[in-house]
Automatic annotation (TrEMBL), chains A, B:
Record's protein name: Ornithine cyclodeaminase
Coiled-coil annotated residue ranges, if any: none
Signal sequence, start to end: none
Organism listed in the record: Aromatoleum tolulyticum
Residues annotated as transmembrane: none
Length: 358, 358
């Protein structure tokens, strides 16, 4: 009989993930993650896809996002609590797991707060490479919270965007984004309103946090040839784009059944035309067709992107020699003898306290 | 500005959980967990209940089981891979999380393989206290795998069962159970078939692992007054009881919408009568009504039991001073500055490698 059947579950803490990203560099991480996401999107039909499971409360939502192919399973735990910043907490916090489909053994537990920001930005850039004008240089960033730097970096490194127009209702958030972009050597300019910020931009990224049906972008702000990267309209009752903005051009999404419920598209009738991004990446449907066309990526975040991001972070940890593990699963010499995993000292103590079960 | 908004996520490893159970004793853990489960079942309508989300593959299933009330959220990750023992792995492996509904912050990550075995047995005993004859002394244990010792201990300590009749198609599993029960000072006898094992028993517990539509118990084996604790028929295509056994007495379950899909009840028509256990615990529906009545608890395992079990293990860790933590969530001085959590050394390395995004 074997004496150990240890399941090694790799662990990537929040600090360790940040160190890995620092060591690899933002540009490499964003590019690598975009590669992984693209590779998985091209295998779209290999995946068992489920709409995410949400537990809603007054102030937010907690969601589980599972997905699997024939060999690998992943899920993400993620919350969305727009008022969290009042308590000094992040609006979005996340972690996730990779597991082996053949045995069900969890092989990785990882932070996904930082990783989600990277994967969301990488997905936005991946979509924009197919949908924005190739000569895009100027992007408006409406919403200057936790995700905004990652959007800027992804569009700079993966698309060549060099100029950022910023607006947020919270001036302190814009201050923070300005400082961070300057630190990275990127050019940014602040504006007093969304309308002023988007004027003359090639790409408009909306990444606001309020859980309301907002109209951050209205039709009068949209210019011919603009690509709209709508990131913050991502759950029921949380939208950013005026419905008429969606009618101004072709609309693309990640996973249609989920986006119709969670995306800005939730405002539109069930037969409103939308194209899943993977079709464009796979060359089945054209992306942008004319310089004057308006394109909209109605992004909500899909489990497959987390699957890819977890794969990327796992491989990065291996590449950089990070080998931390946690013991989630009992190590049983005989898998039918779970009882035997409890130290024997339990036996004599079993009857110590008088039992009180009603 | 505060310099830290650390989210302390308590961590309970497989080893640590086993040590806690050993220190507290099986009897106290089973009794305590039964108390917690009972208390939560009595608040049935306080919970947002969801059927579990399953990703099925050829050899097994991976499930997520979320549930929440106004203040606390939990989910369990659990697999079911009946062939795992061939690779030296457990059929069922699990872990879970408690989180704060107000903020979405995860407050506990815990092993749930051992804990699930305890909570399943505690739930079985809780049901049997209301459904089995109060003078029950003899229980058949059909299926002598990883869960069987816990069932025996729960029925011994919480119901006063003193004699166990064992049968398993795997003689080695029965050997193991015999040894473990002897170590605990419990009286057990092995039989050559299910039919012989159940003869003369007050309670019959079926806890087999095969993912098939089996008929472990047939009507000819059922005696007046028996309580059947059906534990192993717990997912689509996996049953243990002949349909006519379900017609011989009153049937009780945990969460009806889930049990109709996953329980032995999956064999029955949609209008087959079943009572949710919480109604009995709350005194809304009588439990056993006559010494000759046959009762069936068609158990599949419900997210609320894991919610209770996680609460119990968290409180036990606090009581016994176990304070291990993991860092799942970034510690941000400014929650809108996630970017700032990445060490600054990233900046100069950002452009080192030439980018290759297709």
């Amino acid at each position: 009989m074997k004496t150990s059947n240890r399941i090694p579950t790799r662990f990537l803490s929040a600090e360790r993930a940040a160190e890995l990203v620092a060591a690899k560099g933002f540009a490499n991480c964003l590019a690598g993650m975009a590669d992984y996401i693209r590779a998985d999107f091209l295998r779209w039909n290999d995946f068992e896809k489920t709409a995410r499971v949400a537990n809603h409360s007054d102030d937010g939502v907690i969601e589980l996002m599972p997905i699997s192919d024939d060999s690998l399973y992943s899920f993400k735990y993620v919350n969305g609590h727009p008022k969290n910043h009042r308590f000094g907490l992040s609006t979005v916090m996340a972690f996730g797991v990779l597991a082996d489909v053949d045995t069900g053994a969890p092989t990785l537990v990882s932070e996904l707060t930082l990783t989600t920001a990277l994967r969301t930005a990488a997905t936005s850039a991946l979509a924009a490479r197919a949908l924005a004008r190739p000569d895009s240089k100027r992007m408006a960033l409406i919403g200057n919270g936790a995700q905004s730097e990652f959007q800027a970096l992804a569009f700079h490194h993966l698309l060549g965007v060099t100029e950022f127009h910023l607006f947020d209702v919270d001036a302190a958030a814009t201050n923070k984004l300005m400082r961070n972009l300057e630190r990275m050597g990127l050019s940014a300019k602040r504006f007093a309103s969304t309308k002023e910020a988007v004027k003359g931009c090639d790409i408009v990224t909306t990444v606001t946090a309020d859980k309301t049906n907002a109209t951050i972008l209205t039709p009068d702000m949209i210019e011919p040839g603009m690509h709209i990267n709508g990131v913050g309209g991502d759950c029921p009752g949380k939208t950013e784009l005026h419905a008429d903005v969606l009618r101004m051009g072709r609309v693309f999404c990640e996973f249609e059944p989920q986006s119709r419920i969670e995306g800005d598209m939730q405002q539109m009738p069930a037969d409103f035309e939308v194209t899943e991004l993977w079709n464009v990446l796979a060359g089945k449907v054209p992306g942008r067709q004319a310089a004057s066309e308006v394109t909209v990526f109605d992004s909500v975040g899909f489990a497959l992107e987390d699957f890819s991001a977890l794969r990327f972070m796992r491989d990065l940890a291996i590449e950089l020699g990070v080998e931390e593990e946690i013991s989630l699963i009992p190590d049983l010499a005989d898998p039918k003898n779970l009882f035997g995993s409890v130290p024997a000292s339990a036996a004599p103590r079993a009857a110590v306290r008088e039992l009180q079960v009603a």
